[in-house]
Amino acid sequence: MTEIKKLTKIALIVDAIIWFIFGVMLVFLYDMTLNYEGWTNPLHVRAFGGICFVAFLFVIIMLRKKEWEEIKLLFICLISMCISVIIVEATVLAMFASTFMAATVSQMIFDLIINAAKNILSIVAYIKQRS
Predict the structure, then answer these.
(1) Distance CA 125, CA 7 (A)
(2) Prediction pTM value
(3) SS3 state at 120
(4) Cα–Cα distance between 74 and 58 in angstroms, integer?
């Protein structure tokens, strides 16, 4: 059995913080802070916020484990979920950026940068953990 390395634990802590912040912003603060466009159906955004909370709970569970083999599959699942979020958000930004307000575009670019940096850290931690 392989013990979880320090870099992997740091990546998990960063993941937990970011998933929690995104979950709070999307579920509770959407109308106050993120609804620049005035969309009337925030259900999809709040549903994704719930997914962020579930990912946060999975990361907390993974931080409590001691062995790499116990968390490896879930770690890969969270990396792949983050990759799909980056792809979808980049596609939406590329297709509809001209119709969005500047605040929405800047928020989406910031989200992409945060998610990409988090995912790069997780991938590097996975590679280091595997070797």
Answers:
(1) 6
(2) 0.84
(3) helix
(4) 8
Evaluate whether 87 touches 115 at the Cβ level (below 8 Å). no
Helix (H) / strand (E) element for 25: namely helix 6-27
88-95 contact pairs (CB < 8 A, 24+): 89/115
What is the signed CA dihedral for 110, 115, 116, 118, rounded to 10 degrees?
120
- Which residue is listed with tokens 């916020």? 49
129, 6 contact by CB (below 8 A): no
Residue 3 phi, psi (nearest 5): -80, 150
Per-residue pLDDT tens for 18-57? 999 989 988 887 766 666 666 656 667 788 889 999 999 9
pLDDT for 74-96, tens place per residue? 999 999 999 998 999 899 889 98
Q: Do you know the residue count of the chain?
A: 131
H-state helical runs in 28-131: 43-64, 68-96, 102-130
Taking the mean position of all CA atoms in its chain, how far away is CA 40? 24
Number of Cβ atoms within 10 Å of the Cβ of 120: 12
Token code pair at residue 88 = 């979808």
